[in-house]
TrEMBL record:
Pfam families with a match to the protein in the record: GSCFA
UniProt-listed Gene3D superfamilies: SGNH hydrolase (3.40.50.1110)
Molecular function as annotated in GO: hydrolase activity, acting on ester bonds
InterPro entries per the UniProt record, alphabetical: GSCFA, SGNH_hydro_sf
Lineage per the UniProt record: Bacteria, Pseudomonadati, Bacteroidota, Cytophagia, Cytophagales
Name the record gives this protein: GSCFA domain-containing protein
Organism in which the protein naturally occurs: Mariniradius saccharolyticus AK6
GSCFA domain location: 22-257
CDD domains: SGNH_hydrolase (cd00229)
Length: 328
């Protein structure tokens, strides 16, 4: 008896290795995949502008970075004494307009460098519902808890997404002819828009992603949304909010992504690094026992070994703190 509907996911060409350079941008699903890649020591720039949900804002941020466009100060605002930008998440914040402008320019330069040298760009579309701000009707990435009457809400058309992303992808192909792009639709349900409205939004995003993969041979699609809706069709795979995939679902989708897009030659290193993470999280019954002392010594040697080729400075510092705490 089958308890789930499974389906084949085409494996990508030019798969990811530990020598690849990756840029992940978009909804919180991009952040999750980026974190799992970073934890396994893949070089990744992960959502530098914070979580961005709608595809037009994603495309604008990428294109402005690639072309070194000046920061649009008309979209800056002050909230609770902090300066924010409507074009990005509240993670991008400063204490003055000048500081915010410099911060955004720094992030744009990071993204530009990444786009020019990356092996892979991972983009996650979260929602096709957008908010237009002001008389010019500029689409914002985040309303930053401002009064609702400042914005007009509407649904994007697939053609708008196609046009906006085509503009960016044409630029991207010029500055980095060898890059691969993976598009995916976030499995996170935007139920605040309404259940039918969320389904409509996801359909628009999926159609736009399909059109882009048909138009550009270096653009592929990874079905994270479809995995959640079909293979994991059960509320036990959601967090308590019944909106976000839980850790079990995230791990399952990660395994599917790993099989489809990561070179099998990297699997052994992935297993080693996952083991190190588990070892660091280990809590012994007796931290002063000879067995645990030996365990820590072996872990330190393992970290020092891999630190020659990968950045394990945080893990080494974490182990050092554990050792110092034990000695008190």
């Amino acid at each position: 008896m089958l308890w789930t509907t499974s389906f084949d996911i085409p494996e990508g060409d030019n798969k990811i290795t530990h020598r690849s350079s990756i840029l992940s941008i978009g909804s919180c699903f991009s952040t999750m995949i980026g974190e799992k890649l970073a934890e396994r020591k893949f070089p990744v720039l992960n959502n530098p502008f914070g979580t961005i949900f709608n595809p037009l804002s994603i495309a604008n941020l990428l294109e402005d970075s690639a072309l070194e466009m000046p920061v649009n100060t008309d979209l800056m605002l002050v909230r609770d004494g902090l300066y924010l930008h409507y074009g990005m998440h509240s993670d991008v914040v400063a204490y003055s307009q000048d500081s915010l402008e410099r911060l955004i320019q720094k992030k744009q330069q990071q993204v530009k460098n990444s786009l020019e040298h990356a092996s892979l760009l991972l983009v996650t579309f979260g929602t096709a519902w957008v908010y237009e701000y002001g008389e010019k009707g500029q689409i914002v990435a985040n309303c930053h808890k401002q009064p609702a009457d400042l914005f007009e809400k509407r649904l994007l058309h697939p053609d708008e997404i196609q046009k906006s992303f085509s503009s960016f992808l044409n630029i991207l192909r010029e500055i980095n002819p060898n890059i691969r792009v993976i598009l995916t639709v976030s499995p996170v349900r935007h139920t605040r828009d309404g259940i039918p409205e969320n389904q409509l939004s996801k359909s628009v995003l999926r159609l736009a992603a399909h059109d882009l993969t048909e138009t550009y041979d270096f653009v592929s699609y990874f079905p994270s949304y479809e995995i959640m809706m079909d293979e994991l069709r059960d509320y036990r795979f959601y967090k308590e909010d019944l909106v976000h995939p839980n850790a079990q679902a995230e791990d399952y989708i990660w395994q599917r992504f790993k099989t489809a897009w990561i070179d099998s030659k990297s699997f052994q290193l992935i297993e080693e690094f996952e083991g190190i993470k588990r070892d660091l999280a280990h809590r012994p019954f007796n931290p002063d026992s000879p067995a645990h002392m030996k365990f820590l010594d072996n872990l330190q040697k393992k970290l020092e070994k891999y630190n020659r080729d990968f950045d394990f400075s945080k893990e080494i510092d974490q182990l050092r703190k554990q050792t110092q705490y034990r000695g008190k």
